[in-house]
Amino acid sequence: MTELPPNLQPGFMQESAKTAPMPWIWAGAAALIAVALFLLVFLLARRKKKKAGKQRALPRIANIHGIGKRDSQQDTFAVSSCEDAALCARKGVLAVLADGMGGLSHGAEISNMAVKTMMEGFSAARQSAQTPQEELRNLLRLADRQVREYMEARAIERGGSTLIAVLIRDGMMDYVSVGDSRLCLVRDGAIRTLNRVHNYGAELDELARQGAIEQEYAASHPSRNALTSYVGIRELKKVDGSEESIKLQKGDRLILMSDGVFNTLRDEEILRCMKPDVYASAVCLEREILDRNDNEQDNYTAILIDQP
Amino acid sequence: MKMKQCPNGHFYDQAKNQACPYCRNLAPAAGRTGGAKTVGIEQPAPAAAPPPFQPQAPRPQQPVSRPPASAAGHTVAILEQKLGMDPVVGWLVCIDGNEKGRDFRIHADNNYIGRDPSMDIALTQDDTVSRRNHAIISYDAESNTFYFSPGEGRSIIRHNGNPVFSTVELSARDELVIGMTKLLFVPFCGEHFKWN
């Protein structure tokens, strides 16, 4: 409950009526009240406008998504809606990308389900006390549980999905990732991968660094590309994510990518496509991929997010 | 251009597309009656109840988008149970082609052959080899036997000069052709040795 300004409280009026019952004072008081009311409305309207202006500075987003030369599209992506600017400013923007694996259409079904569960969980959740890191991990766990149940119900033995999700709120960014999809930050003309990928190669490299195995053995291992963590795995233990929120700078651009993008384009080639406009950059990336005309082009998906 | 966001969270150019061009990709189950719920992302759906499932009409096996998909679970087991023990069971030696003189290790179970460096056996120098899964060489530890199978490659693979359309059993010193690369098969496991 907001308190009324003293000159609008009923007591004030009664008192003035008692002490000065002359008509011209009545008129004067009425005029004063009218002016005060008008000012109040005007100020409130201005404040609202200012707020709306602030909210309009939401991240600018573009995406590319193609089947490549495969028979089915197993990548899925989604970005939360910002139609309600106030809600969007409060809850932030969630972008999710999943690259499904598995024969037949299971890969597609699983990645669809993982993304859908994340988005539904995000839009259903009210603002809560949990940190963005917890929020993302909880959403991921929800998606994983849903996928496992789905797979068990249909006796799908092998299948799963990578998943990478980014949450941007108040200019702060958090992410969570399983599998080998990538999150890159383009800042000051340089590109940097933010997440650690979960494949056997990465683990072998780490062991080689520690001296547990030979570098050559790690580098030449045939199963380097196999995933060691993904949505739908029996026990989801390895989850990569931001430990604390990362502050975004003006002009920062985040790119979420499936392996169909970064296996086809090198970092320099991605950087060359980074134009000031986020949509033009996305168009450039897609054209670069399609221009390769690779007979083996995998499903490709990228979400580009610009911090205004 | 006028960017629009569809209910499933995709951005698209409204001037070029009347409806979201990405949502049709979302619908592997859309053709299936009753499976439509799997496609919507922001459609309200009961979180507890998984979407109804209709058995699929039989159709040819589609290539897996990522070969290690099947290996993924397996690799975890290897990693957790016997780290550093994925022993060599044989070799392929390149006897003709861009990598003449080089040998490639064969490990147990499926070895995917392709041009991509991430392949189990990566023939990176031969542009006529498909990037992923051109062919598969397998060692079955139980029967102590090697097999050679076609994958999703564009060109026909050969075994001792004959085209291979289904899995063939391999014997020592068999000659395999993948793209422009000729490989000689040299088993390590076999009659005389087996890992235990």
Structural class of chain B: mainly beta
Total strand segments of chain B? 13
Question: What structural class do helix, strand and pairing data of chain A support?
Answer: alpha+beta
Structure annotation, total helices of chain B:
1
Characterization of this structure:
The complex is a heterodimer of chains A (308) and B (196). Chain A is of the alpha+beta class and 308 residues long. In chain A, 43% of the residues lie in helices and 21% in strands. Chain A is built from ten helices and eleven strands. In chain A, strand 4 and strand 5 form a beta hairpin. In chain A, 43% of the residues are buried. The model of chain A has no long low-confidence stretch (mean pLDDT 86). Chain B is mainly beta and 196 residues long. Helix content of chain B is 7%, strand content 30%. In chain B, the strands form three sheets. Chain B has a six-stranded antiparallel β-sheet with strand order 4-3-13-12-9-10, with no helix packed on it. Chain B is elongated. The N and C termini of chain B lie far apart (65 Å). At the A-B interface, strand 1, strand 2, strand 3, helix 4 and helix 5 of A face helix 1 of B.
Strand and helix map with partners:
The complex is a heterodimer of chains A (about 300) and B (about 200).
Chain A: H1 10-19, H2 23-56, E1 60-66, E2 75-79, H3 85-91, E3 93-101, H4 106-124, H5 132-153, E4 160-169, E5 172-178, E6 182-187, E7 190-193, H6 200-209, H7 215-220, E8 240-241, E9 246-247, E10 253-257, H8 259-262, H9 267-272, H10 278-292, E11 300-306
Antiparallel strand pairs in A: 1-11, 2-3, 3-4, 4-5, 5-8, 5-9, 6-7, 6-10, 10-11
Helix pairs in contact in A: 4-5
Chain B: E1 3-5, E2 11-13, H1 68-81, E3 88-96, E4 103-107, E5 109-114, E6 121-122, E7 135-140, E8 145-150, E9 157-159, E10 162-164, E11 168-169, E12 175-178, E13 181-187
Parallel strand pairs in B: 5-6
Antiparallel strand pairs in B: 1-2, 3-4, 3-13, 5-7, 7-8, 8-11, 9-10, 9-12, 12-13
